[in-house]
Amino acid sequence: MKLSYDQLYKKLRSRFGYLNWWPGETRDEIVIGAILTQQATWKNVEKAIANLKSENALDLRKIRRMGLRRLERLVRPSGFYRQKASRLKGIASYIFTNYGSLDGMFDKSTAELRKELLSLNGVGRETADSIILYVANKPIFVVDAYTKRIMSRVYGIDERIDYDELRGLISDKIGKSLDLYKDFHAQFVELGKEHCRPRPLCENCPINEYCRYFKNASGK
Ligand code: SF4
Description:
Number of helices: 13
Order of helices and strands: HHHHHHHHHHHHH
CATH topology of the largest domain: Endonuclease III, domain 1
Number of strands: 0
Oligomer: single chain
Bound molecules: iron/sulfur cluster
Strand content: under 5%
CATH class of the largest domain: Mainly Alpha
Shape: globular
Helix content: 55-70%
Largest sheet: none
CATH superfamily of the largest domain: Hypothetical protein, domain 2
């Protein structure tokens, strides 16, 4: 039996509950987290965020003014720290030089905002869409490596699918809803962390009876 994307969401939500994402207390923290999480585990991002917090520097205005070496030291646990420190300073500088605030930058259409974010150094599609969804509060579906892996295993979609193609495939089927997009992405992350790992833990997975990979592996 094929699981619709709506049913997929409901199954995940009934297992994991409403996840209230993104895990960040302020909009600055979410923007910073979206950069730090590139090629990093969330555990290591949390260490970098804790460093920034401990020096009262989890703030884009402060990051803009901070010395680069100090910022590198604080974000070091998230890996690629030189690159990430420079990206953070670049983004902070861009926002406050051109708009004076996050609100100023976000006061435009989703398409315009996405184009602008993607023009910034170090902002790829996943990072741009995370900022648009969780900071600007505009409905755009975020795709990440977990999404690709799960969609590939459950539905047989090629894991190398283009980011925007998969984003379109999912959002066309589930409609446009800010809350749903926020929580659906969080559910994918939770399933990816808890069960659908590189070596999956399928036995107790909430969607195993619908999953192609599991059926093939178990001969069901
Ligand atoms: S059944 Fe296994 S492969 Fe399928 S989604 Fe669950 S954990 Fe992933």
